[in-house]
Amino acid sequence: MIKIEFSLAIALFLILTVCLVLISWMFFDKKKQLGPFSSEKAFFWQCSICTYVYVDSKHNTISQCPRCGSYNKKEEAA
Ligand SMILES: [Zn+2]
């Protein structure tokens, strides 16, 4: 009897934790899309040659990789 109640408590705790994580994750994801992070994210570039990630706020369409010197074109995927 006690064992069943204990497992039920653990199950409820797990369900509550998963729900809390999911809700907070959804809230954070929504906030990230609406917040100032979206404009900040546009400055991030990933080199298609060496996969180096760098920040370039001066250029919008094309940027030069500081590591290998190759030019990268901005992809409008997001
Ligand atoms: Zn590169």
Mean pLDDT equals 82
Report the order of strands and helices. Answer: HHEEEE
Give helix % range. Answer: 40-55%
Give the CA-CA distance, first to last residue. Answer: 53 Å
Instruction: Extract low-pLDDT stretches.
Output: none
Give the DSSP E fraction (strand runs of 2 or more residues).
15-25%
Helix count, DSSP H or I runs of 4 or more residues: 2
> What overall form do the CA principal axes indicate?
elongated
Biggest beta-sheet profile: 2 strands, antiparallel
> Rg to the nearest angstrom?
22 Å
- Number of structural units classed as domains: 2
Structural class, please? alpha+beta
Report the count of strand segments. 4
Query: Which small molecules are bound?
Result: zinc ion
Strand order in the largest sheet: 1-2
Provide key terms for this protein.
single chain; 78 residues; alpha+beta; two-stranded antiparallel ribbon; 4 strands; elongated
List the helices and strands and how they pair.
Blueprint (H helix, E strand, L loop, with lengths): L1 H33 L2 H5 L2 E3 L6 E3 L6 E3 L6 E3 L5
Antiparallel strand pairs: 1-2, 3-4
The structure holds zinc ion.
Describe the model.
The chain has 2 domains: 1-35; 38-78, no CATH class. The strands form 2 sheets. A two-stranded antiparallel ribbon has the order 1-2. A two-stranded antiparallel ribbon has the order 3-4. It has 2 helices and 4 strands. A hairpin with a 6-residue loop joins strand 1 and strand 2 (53-55). Helices cover 49% and strands 15% of the residues. By secondary structure, the chain is an alpha+beta fold. It binds zinc ion. Zinc ion (ZN) binds at residues 47, 49-50, 52, 65, 67-68, 70. Zinc ion binds next to loops.
